[in-house]
Amino acid sequence: MAELPHKYEVPVKVAAKAIKLTDETKSELKSSGMMDEKGKLKLKGVSPKMLKRMKEESVDCPVLKNEIAFIQCFVCPNFQSRVSGQVLCKGDTLNQKAH
Q1: How many beta carbons lie within 10 A of that of residue 63, not counting itself?
Q2: What top-level branch of life does the organism fall under (predicted)?
């Protein structure tokens, strides 16, 4: 199997304290059906145990030049894959409305 095309390999780290999702990210999650109206995440194929762990993780986003919650990275159009504690990121420019 060929490796996915990516520009960055970003390490996933455990945040000292959970990073809150921005209002823009929450509205994006709600509109795409990944969050209900009460704010509960509903990611297909992700177990509740894994979702709890993902909420406690963060990444230093090379595109936004900021530390963001892993959930925000996971739903980003640049997210390729997560392999061995690394996120493969396409590195494309994002319009700020999406995040």
Answers
A1: 19
A2: Archaea
